[in-house]
Amino acid sequence: MIEVHINLLAVLIAGLAQIAIGMLWHAPFLFGKHWMRSAGVKSMKGSAGSMIVGGIAALVMAYVLAFGIAFANPENIFQAMIIGGLVFIGFIAPILLGKVIWEQRPTSLFLNNAGYFLITLLAMSAIIYAL
């Protein structure tokens, strides 16, 4: 079996970056109002439990992405970001698109969420590679 090294500090920073990007992306002055309207969300107030679960999910996503990047062994940051882009195209986008098709969610919600996840995965990939 191929042995890969995972930089846990990079995973932590990438996970925190996802949280920070999410806070900015969903802020009222960026895309928050549009997201709330499209998703049918009445309030941005979340419980501490929701924040903890979201933080754990961000760390899991960062760890798995770090594993994929380490396994692929990219030669530069752009190749690492391509891996993040491929994860988006192959996994995130089809899942989000399924919500439009099967749950009859608005296409605008797909575009909002897809933009968020694409930017997040590219940033996380860059961080993981750089560290």
Describe the structure.
With 131 residues, the protein is mainly alpha-helical. It has one domain. The chain is 77% helix and 0% strand. The protein has helices at 8-25, 32-39, 48-72, 77-102, 107-130.
List key phrases describing it:
131 residues; mainly alpha
Q: Quick one: how many beta strands? A: 0
Largest sheet: none
The N- to C-terminal Cα distance equals 24 Å
Q: Radius of gyration, rounded?
A: 16 Å
Topology order in helix (H) and strand (E) letters:
HHHHH
Are there runs of 5+ residues with pLDDT below 50, and where?
none
Mean pLDDT: 93
Which class do the helix and strand fractions yield?
A: mainly alpha
Helix content: over 70%
Tally of contiguous helical segments: 5
Binned strand content:
under 5%
Number of domains: 1
Shape: globular
Summarize the structure.
The protein is mostly helical and 131 residues long. The chain has helices at residues 8-25, 32-39, 48-72, 77-102, 107-130.
Reconstruct the topology from this structure.
Blueprint lengths: L7 H18 L6 H8 L8 H25 L4 H26 L4 H24 L1
Helix pairs in contact: 1-3, 1-5, 2-5, 3-4, 3-5, 4-5
